[in-house]
Amino acid sequence: MSDFKSKLTPYIEGFIEEQHAMGFSFNGQEQILKRFDKFIIDNELDTGQLESEVVSLWEERLPIEQDRSRNRRLQTVNKLAEYMQALGLHATFCHTMGKELQAILYTPSEDEIAKILTHVDNLDYEQPSLKRLCPAYSVMIRLYYFCGLRLSEVVMLKREDVDLSTGRLYIKKSKGDKDRYVYVAEDLRALLVKYDGYMEQQVPSREWFFPGFYSDKHFCRTSIDRKFREWWKACFPSWIGKRPTIHSLRHAFVINRINEWAKEGLDFKVMVPVLSKYLGHRSIEETYYYYNMRNPREESIRNIMERGSIAGEVELD
Question: CA-CA distance, 217 to 230, in Å (whole number)?
């Protein structure tokens, strides 16, 4: 049962889920959003929109409330407003003072990802029990980047879910408890075939396509995320700031795909819904969010689609 009761619940829950997926704990802000959700209902402002009347009342300083606490409370709602705007919804911002909340997680560039891929391909653990994990890492990281799969969708793949002849992956009960099919490119299909042949020798008749340290179990999601952080640190030892997570590769996939379509002059009205279905998004608004929140300098996909898109309408670096 949801902790939220207002008509903003779908947006609040979607926003929190996205923050967790990007590696933010967000616990303190989640508590603030619970207060905000109750605040909306208690003040009979539950319209399902983030309107100026709601924001103005939320901005009022509480008794014995310091500037820092007030700003954190207002900034959390502003982040929710950013999320809603990225979905193409109207949302009013609070007036705050001082530092904003933590920045959106960094999305790796194509060059940075290429360096990570090379690093992973050259992994060679001395321990025999770990050696068979190296080919798995090489294939898994490509599924995250070239297919935009979620963390759990890769680790939970069973061997029976992978059609090696067609390159079709059966993604079962992912986000929203929905199933879908994802097709991989031919070069990635060939890599899956090569990996499967190798793994059949190591773990005959296995259940999981990517068996973890214990061959009868799949990889743990947290272990893959932790490994990615290790690889990033190894490739970029002088990195300053919050590092990307494995989930950042999904964002990079969306950004690169849409930018390629823009350069080719493809119609976003046709392509974005296809991409949204491929990603397993509940709506194309979620795809807007992925792109627009990571590309603040780019024009909103929604605006381009509403006008009828051509390649020249997107300002690319």
Answer: 22
The alpha-carbon radius of gyration of the chain (Å, integer) is: 22
Contact 5, 38 (CB under 8 A): yes
Sequential pLDDT tens for the chain (317 residues):
578 999 999 999 988 888 887 777 778 889 999 999 999 998 888 999 898 888 888 988 887 778 888 888 888 998 898 888 888 888 888 876 654 444 456 789 999 999 999 999 999 888 877 888 999 999 999 999 999 999 889 999 999 999 999 999 999 877 656 789 999 999 999 999 999 999 999 999 999 999 998 989 999 888 898 899 999 999 999 988 778 889 899 989 988 888 888 788 888 778 888 888 888 887 777 777 777 665 544 555 555 555 444 333 333 22
